[in-house]
């Protein structure tokens, strides 16, 4: 189980790091030009999109770095819970925009982040 949690956390961290960094450095208008799946940015200001990206980057770092450095590993499940909250917001935005098919992807990310939070808070915590 520990290995599975590391793999899931690593994949999530990579996805959120790339996606979040993209949101931070790319203007809102360019993100919106990526097509239907990126039209959600119309519901937010430029600062809001950058804030969401920053939260994703911080969550990605929090999924891996505290455990790798063995410094405050309790931050790993907290980062995962933070990403769950981000994805709840994403799902709500998708519902409001009637993008139910795209919401399934958001729910998959939410479920994986919840799995990491559950695993690291419970059966596979880093407590020695």
TrEMBL record:
Subcellular location: Membrane
Residue spans crossing the bilayer: 6-26, 47-68, 74-93, 100-121
Signal peptide: none
Superkingdom field: Bacteria
Membrane topology note: Multi-pass membrane protein
Main localization, broad class: membrane
Pfam families linked to this entry: DoxX_2
Keyword Transmembrane annotated: yes
InterPro entries in UniProt: DoxX
UniProt KW keywords: Membrane, Transmembrane, Transmembrane helix
UniProt keyword Transmembrane, yes or no: yes
The protein's name: DoxX family protein
């Amino acid at each position: 189980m520990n290995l599975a949690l590391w793999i899931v956390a690593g994949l999530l961290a990579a996805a959120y790091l790339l996606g979040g960094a993209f949101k931070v450095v790319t203007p809102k208008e360019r993100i919106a030009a990526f097509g239907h799946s990126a039209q959600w940015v119309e519901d937010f200001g430029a600062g809001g999109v950058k804030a969401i990206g920053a939260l994703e980057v911080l969550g990605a770092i929090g999924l891996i770095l505290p455990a790798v450095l063995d410094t405050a590993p309790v931050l790993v499940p907290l980062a995962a819970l933070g990403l769950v909250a981000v994805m709840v917001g994403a799902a709500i935005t998708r519902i409001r925009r009637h993008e139910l098919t795209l919401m399934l992807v958001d729910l998959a990310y939410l479920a994986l982040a919840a799995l990491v939070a559950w695993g690291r808070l419970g059966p596979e915590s880093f407590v020695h």
